Amino acid sequence: MNKENFRFYVKVRTTLNVQVKDIHDELCTVCGDKTPSLKVIEKWSKWFREGQEQVEDDTQSDSSAIETTSENTEQVRIVINDNLYPYQAKEQQKRNEEAQDMPELTRDFLHPAEFYQQVKTICGINFFCGVPDSLLKDFCAYVTKNVSPNYHIITTNEGSAVGLACGSYMATGQPSLVYLQNSGLGNIVNPIMSLATPGVYSLPMLLLIGWRGEPGKPDEPQHRVQGPATPDILTALGIPFQSLPNCHDGAGQALETAKRYMETTKGPYALEQHHRHPNNKPLNIYFN
Q: Domain of 83?
């Protein structure tokens, strides 16, 4: 990777709200001594968080805007797919083993009422639609119980939900939340690429995706291929994504990141809901 590739990687990870030290550790894992110093990455990340597209080096007189080129994209894909994912999988397996006796610390689900209010307050979302998923059942049940049918529609397939979200944004200027299981990603390809994506009609929406078949977690046979492929599918669609944190402070930060992206880039942003730890007790559905 050259300097432009490094900068582009830092830009992508900063946009996804990854901490500077984690970005540096990721690059060190893959690139070793060729990785820029933590101080340099801190500087680049700060500029990107401030919305600066052009960065300058103290040691050189040149300055350059960070562009999305095929070379940059390919280099980042190689770093993430060929090197970072295996590293993260090992780390996740280690955390899972350490957490065997601490089920409360590995709880994945948020209180649906509080998360619903965060979605409305932070992202300005009032319209909800989608296909229910078991990983999202508490949230879907809360929305079904508490949101007027005029502002919540359970669709026959995921593509219809994306179409409704596109129409809602064109009518109101406000993004919608579309919930779905990752097995439904194939159904959203056409409306995303033909309507919502930046460069076509630029229609922002928040995708809440239940991630079945996540690597390292036992699941049903039908999810074995779709699960590991999910990040690549979102990347191919040009949809930035991050995991939905299991605490409300973290969820709020993730929603702030989604809001900034939807406001500035005018495109879809995705949050992935992970499978709960097998030792967790089922959560109650909250209607009040």
A: 3-98
77 Cβ contact partners less than 8 Å away, ≥ 6 residues apart = 235
CA distance 271 to 255: 9
CATH number for the domain harbouring residue 268: 3.40.50.970
For residue 91 the two structure tokens come to: 């780390």
Question: Mean pLDDT across the stretch 160-179?
Answer: 96
Strands 206-210 and 177-181: parallel
Interatomic CA distance for residues 206 and 123, integer angstroms: 9
Q: Is 127 exposed, middle or buried (0-12, 13-18, 19+ CB in 10 A)?
A: buried
pLDDT tens, position by position, 57-73: 544 444 555 555 555 55
- 149 & 41 share domain: no
With 0-12 CB in 10 A as exposed, 13-18 as middle and 19+ as buried, what is 248? Answer: middle
> pLDDT tens, 107-121?
356 899 999 999 999
Residues 262 and 133 in one domain: yes
Residue 212: Cβ-neighbour burial (10 angstroms; 0-12, 13-18, 19+): buried
d(CA 107, CA 117): 20
Identify whether residues 197 and 269 lie together within a single domain. yes
Does pTM top 0.85 for this prediction?
A: no
* E strand or H helix at 56: strand 54-56
Query: Are residues 160 and 53 part of one domain?
Result: no
